[in-house]
Amino acid sequence: MKRIRVLIVDDSATIRRLLATVLSRDEDIEVVGGAPDAATARQMIKDLTPDVITLDVEMPNMNGIDFLEKIMRLRPMPVVMVSTLTQRGAEVTLSALEIGAVDYFAKPTENVAAHLEDCARDLCEKVRTAAGARVRAYVRREPPVISTKPDFDPGNTVVAIGSSTGGVEALIEVLSHFPKNCPATVITQHMPPHFTTSFADRLNRLCQPTVTEARDGAVLAPGQIYLAPGGDAHLEVHGVGALRCRLVQEPAVNGHRPSVDVLFNSVAATVRHNAVGVILTGMGRDGASGLLAMRKNGASTIGQDEASSVVYGMPRVAYEIGAVERQFALQQIGQEVLNVCELRSKKAGRHAASI
């Protein structure tokens, strides 16, 4: 079986050696070279034709973001960004994911050599996933067309969304369709601390509704979108009457904390038929069983289709086990969610009028 050829681009010789050592231990991966800057990397890409690039966010002369944009515009290929677990690292990495990087690896800021060993499996898995990801040429996009629906009735529906690899672009696309008075929406996107803080701020700037990191006890309300904070807690929905966010400090589920399955299962048990579940691009199977529980309890469920997914992992498993009621291309999902919510609201109104 053909090994995955990886080019490491990082201005630190120490980090290049560490990454090469870690990646070379995986029998599926071959490190074909290391470059200290964009100019060297450009020539090595031509000469070595790697399958995947790991790219440092901060580099001299041309930073990682500018170089990534050139790669994705002129020669699209899978890129895993290497950043730090800091606020600055998070903001720059989110820009890279919007441009087209498949994923990111957050390197520790202290005692790098020791902690990198602990993260070795995660890094190798991200490289393997990137090698099979769908990458598209980068086209500088106009700001998303913000939805304005003054007559939209969100009713009592709660929307629950789960995503992972490729989810940054996917969530921006879906939520750009949501009007200011959108249904109360809860989201779990696999991310570490700092990253979800920056991502919630970014979504809040790009979308009409208010987007915040979920706080324990926050009341779910129309026009509000709650993003599970990265780190040591899962996001759940609980309550009778007034539904609230609950942050639960429990072990990782499916290797993730926060976990999409934990969120979806809580919505299935609490909201039941007054919910819409959406599973977007991502690696693995997190969210599939929770989405099935939602569907069995009467919720409408939507999955992203294979053609528009960066990684058709989570949506595929959910579809195969019968958790997905309907599949759509990413560009259609936001509007479909609103259509389902309006239909449910109208049915609830007719039912109340007939009593």
Automatic annotation (TrEMBL):
Catalytic activity, reaction form: [protein]-L-glutamate 5-O-methyl ester + H2O = L-glutamyl-[protein] + methanol + H(+); L-glutaminyl-[protein] + H2O = L-glutamyl-[protein] + NH4(+)
CDD domains xrefs: CheB_Rec, REC_CheB-like
Keywords, comma-separated and alphabetical: Chemotaxis, Cytoplasm, Hydrolase, Phosphoprotein
Protein's gene: cheB
Modification sites for 4-aspartylphosphate: D56
Protein name: Protein-glutamate methylesterase/protein-glutamine glutaminase
Comment text on domains: Contains a C-terminal catalytic domain, and an N-terminal region which modulates catalytic activity.
Post-translational modification: Phosphorylated by CheA. Phosphorylation of the N-terminal regulatory domain activates the methylesterase activity.
Keyword Transmembrane helix tagged: no
NCBIfam families xrefs: PRK00742.1, PRK12555.1
Location of the CheB-type methylesterase domain: 152-344
